[in-house]
Write a structure and sequence with these properties.
177 residues; alpha+beta; 5-stranded antiparallel sheet; 4-stranded antiparallel sheet; globular
């Protein structure tokens, strides 16, 4: 039997570092795409989360686990990855056989890759392992909203402004029994 929305919401709320979590209304789901800031990059993760049948927003603090994969990529027009975020706990690339440079302390540029056309930042959908494998759930993705989307969600869920908390959208589909 599939996990209910209430069970999933309770599970997410109990995760270490989660301040609050709520399902988004249809109004919220319509508002968020209009608030996107395409000039800062393509937020494919938010678009994919919003395309799922169920979407919730959670706010987390520093106790929440780090992402298991890069949340920011630099890609060319063919989506070849030319740079990416180094996530906390990840070993930086090995210098043997690769040419790369760090941009800050947590972003690496791959100098041995030749770009084609225009470059852009891409925020991909990211796995959310806590929900993967739950009965009846499929296509689970999470994403970090753009700043105006985050501000909207803070107001909606009564979360204080500032950098203490960050928002994550979590989308999934429910498999028909």
């Amino acid at each position: 039997m599939p996990a209910s929305d209430e069970q999933i919401l309770e599970l997410v709320r109990r995760l270490p570092g989660v301040l609050t979590a709520e399902f988004l209304s249809a109004k919220d789901r319509e508002a968020l795409p209009r608030l996107a800031t395409p000039a800062s990059g393509e937020n494919r993760g938010v678009a994919e989360a919003l395309n799922r049948s169920r979407v919730l927003c959670l706010f987390k603090d520093s106790r929440f686990r780090p992402p298991g994969e890069a949340t920011l990529l630099l890609v060319d027009e063919h989506e070849a990855v030319l740079g990416r975020e180094i996530v906390p706990g990840e070993t930086p690339p090995d210098r043997a056989g690769r040419r790369f440079a760090f941009l800050g302390k947590d972003f690496v540029l791959f100098a041995d890759r030749k770009p084609t056309g225009r470059l852009r930042f891409l925020l991909p959908p990211v796995r959310f392992p806590e929900l993967e494998g739950l009965p009846g759930l499929e296509e689970v993705v999470s994403a970090s909203p753009d700043t105006p989307q985050d501000e909207y969600l803070r107001k909606r869920l009564n979360v204080p402004t500032g950098s203490q908390y960050a928002s994550i959208l979590l989308g999934y589909d429910v498999r028909n029994p």
